[in-house]
Amino acid sequence: MDAVLLQILNGLDKGSAYALIALGLTLIFGTLGVVNFAHGALFMIGAFCAVVVQKTLTLSKVVLSETEKTPWGTPKEIHTYYVQEWFGDFGLVLQDYSVPVAILLALPVMLLAGIAMERGLIKHFYKRPHADQILVTFGLAIVLQEIVKALFGANPIPQPAPQALQGALDVGTMIGFDPGVIVYPYWRFIYFVFAAAVVSAVFAFLQYTTFGMVVRAGMADRETVGLLGINIDKRFTAMFGFAAVVTGLAGVMYAPILSPDYHMGMDFLVLCFVVVVVGGMGSLPGAVAAGFLLGVLQSFAAMNEVKAILPGIDQIIIYLVAVVILLTRPRGLMGRKGVMED
């Protein structure tokens, strides 16, 4: 039982990332009908927002000490952080919490990036075949990752979690197990809570706000909503930006779990498209449910006991599940009739 609970916990953080990215993908496909292969690049850009904030907060100036000397007799260099000089001890707190602070940068950056992507490129492919959409957005994703590679280099850039959250929570003692049997890193738990909060906020926004109700109506029958005098195109553009924000925030908070690098977007993109297909194209609940389900299944498949019987199963388990689901239920778990059907 302890091994089962531990693998469920281990699958929650990756499942949370899958769910958030797949949610953004489904929002775009459900509103605009666009298969966006550049969506993984938005996840990457969000993660690099954390990198930019961390690098900015650790900028320092060098002053030569008048009293201290190095072993070679030269004046010792003293590094003073600008943020500490400007804000005192609060500046050190900002440094420590650079990842959560990066959310403040990611919100406008991701919103503008999403709107620019939709207005500048994708709007020209609304009425084109899905193959054309895949090709152009995949090309855009490659361009974006090469830009990031040129700016930040090819190596991963570690992003530390706040010191107070770098330990682990002893979950086992809370449910009756011996100490140290089931421990779970604080930040992974925070990521799961964060993902649950973002997913809840998205569904509440679509369900209970006038804007969200109009968007849902437009997803069901775009022409009728347009005939009512509502500019549904502007609302769908806003939803593209909104989906970019959701995915970007997922990248920001995932940075301490997986060090950002230029190809992380592609790594998650393919898996998250599988998640969307398993959940059902156009189904928001299906995308979230499939994200968590496949994340947990991947965690179980990574157990040494399982890999000893089926070597490499952890690399293909998601695709095997997708094959089984699509053979038995071609529309996915919660897919709607008519989506991507002729």
From TrEMBL:
Topology in membrane: Multi-pass membrane protein
Biological process terms in GO annotation: amino acid transport
Location of this chain's protein in the cell: Cell membrane
InterPro entries: ABC_transp_permease, BCAA_transport_permease
Record key words, sorted: Amino-acid transport, Cell membrane, Membrane, Transmembrane, Transmembrane helix, Transport
GO molecular function: transmembrane transporter activity
Keyword Amino-acid biosynthesis carried by entry: no
Primary localization class, coarse: membrane
Keyword Cell membrane part of the UniProt annotation: yes
Domain of life of the organism encoding this protein: Bacteria
Transmembrane domains' residue ranges: 15-35, 42-64, 97-122, 189-215, 236-256, 268-296, 308-327
A single Gene Ontology CC term: plasma membrane
PANTHER family to which the protein is assigned, alphabetical: ABC TRANSPORTER ATP-BINDING PROTEIN, BRANCHED-CHAIN AMINO ACID TRANSPORT SYSTEM PERMEASE PROTEIN LIVH
Family, similarity comment: Belongs to the binding-protein-dependent transport system permease family. LivHM subfamily.
Protein name (Swiss-Prot/TrEMBL): Branched-chain amino acid ABC transporter permease
